[in-house]
Structure formats: structure tokens, C-alpha cells
Design brief:
Structural class: alpha/beta
Order of helices and strands: EHEHHEHEHEEEEHHEHE
CATH class: Alpha Beta
Number of helices: 8
Number of domains: 1
Shape: globular
Radius of gyration: 17 Å
Largest sheet: 8 strands, mixed
Distance between the termini: 15 Å
């Protein structure tokens, strides 16, 4: 079913491509090409990105940094990713604007709901880094939050697998793939493709989530344009 406005969540790791650190320009160009194709269907697109390709705060916290500080550094990593993606979009002819939950002086303006919605209605891709701007919350939770704020129809989470499984399919050959799940099933079965806070927020406000394989060429464009792929949690 065609969507009017959607939010796409991309992990930082997805931006690595063939690299061990940073951003693979080939990945940026592929994402840009698929978003460009999706825009031809009239869909309005907001984008949330992780920062794990640059810094993984939750893994480092406790060794040398307090968790709140580590999360703050992770938020800054998402801003770096957003600026890079926006530049890649621009080079591919896609109008885009970065509005960060963590404003950085005159470098990156602050996210403001009304402004973001106006930009989306004008067919700009709006990139929203900075997580929720608060520590102890993941970018998955930020994705659901921003989707609700900007009145999106659905959250798409691009991953490395083609949906939600009963267990890690790379470790368990007998893992079962789900086509559809309820929020409560995802929470009760502890299917950690998204954290519990994200699923709970989505459940409480009836925001559907689609988990799909974004590494398969063409899947981003298909998903954003309304083709049913991956697993739907609703």
C-alpha cells in the first residue's frame, strides 16, 4: 500500500559497507539512489541513523566513560553520519535538511516538530540525528518517537536480515521467520531486533514497524514505495 510519509531507520553499521570504520561512499550512493526512486512515488521521507560505525557508547561505557557521557558521544556520531548522508543526497539531486535533536551552534540546527513537518510536506528528506537527545535511550526508540511526532504512517528499520526471526538465523538453522507479529509478541518473545522501549512506545501509539533487509539492492525503494517486504510488527 502506498505510504504518504514514512520514517526510515538505518543503523550505523549499515553505513560501513566493506569497511571496518566510518562510512562507505558506495553505500551512501546506493541509499541515495533508492530514496530518489521512492520519492518518485510521492512518499515523504524522514531518516534516523545510528552511530555505531563511528562510536558504540553502550559497549564502551563503564570502562573509561560514564554511560551518559558515552551516549552523548554516540549522539554526536549520528550527527556526523547525518551530515555525510545529506551531502551524498545533495550530490544525487535529493533535497535534504538535517535537524538534530542535539543542536550544534550554527553547524546543525535543532529539530523542531513543526519545521520538520513543513520540510517533509515540501518533499525534502529530513535527517534527524541526535537520538532522543537523552542518554539511556536507543536510536530505535528515537525512530519511533520522531515518527509519531512527524505523523508518519510507519517506521521502516533496515537491517542485515530479511525480517524478524525467532532466534538469530546465523546461529540457529531452525530459526523461524515471522511475516507478522503483534507488539506484545515481539516484547514477550524478547525478539531484540528493536529494544523493548521502542516496541512499547510503538504499541501504545499504534505505530506499525517494518523490519527488512536493506542490504539487498532495491529493497529500500520497494519498502518505502509501499511494497510488502520483511516483517510487519503492529
Amino acid at each position: 500500500m502506498p505510504r504518504r510519509r514514512v520514517l526510515l531507520k538505518i543503523s550505523g553499521e549499515a553505513l560501513l559497507g566493506s569497511q571496518e570504520f566510518g562510512i562507505d561512499s558506495a553505500v551512501v550512493n546506493r541509499i541515495a539512489a533508492e530514496i530518489s526512486e521512492a520519492r518518485t512515488h510521492g512518499v515523504e521521507i524522514a531518516l534516523i541513523m545510528g552511530g555505531g560505525n563511528i562510536f558504540r557508547g553502550a559497549e564502551i561505557a563503564g570502562d573509561t566513560l560514564k554511560r551518559a557521557t558515552a551516549d552523548a558521544v554516540g549522539m554526536l556520531a549520528t550527527v556526523m553520519n547525518a551530515l555525510t548522508l545529506a551531502d551524498g543526497f545533495s550530490k544525487n539531486g535529493i533535497p535534504s535538511v538535517v535537524l538534530s535533536a542535539v543542536a550544534i551552534g550554527n553547524l546543525v540546527p535543532a529539530f523542531e516538530r513543526g519545521h520538520a513537518m513543513r520540510l517533509l510536506s515540501e518533499k525534502n528528506v529530513v535527517l534527524i540525528p541526535g537520538g532522543t537527545s537523552n542518554p539511556f535511550f536507543t536510536t530505535d526508540t528515537a525512530a519511533v518517537l520522531r515518527a509519531l511526532e512527524t505523523e508518519c504512517d510507519i517506521v521502516f528499520k533496515g537491517t542485515k536480515v530479511d525480517g524478524v526471526y525467532s532466534a538469530d538465523p546465523k546461529k540457529h538453522a531452525d530459526a523461524v521467520r515471522y511475516e507478522k507479529l503483534s507488539y506484545n509478541e515481539a516484547i514477550e518473545k524478547r525478539l531484540m531486533v528493536m529494544d523493548t522501549s521502542a516496541f512499547t512506545l510503538a504499541r501504545d501509539h499504534n505505530m506499525p514497524i517494518c523490519v527488512f533487509d536493506m542490504q539487498q539492492p532495491g529493497n529500500i525503494a520497494k519498502a518505502l514505495a509501499g511494497e510488502v517486504i520483511g516483517t510487519i510488527v503492529s
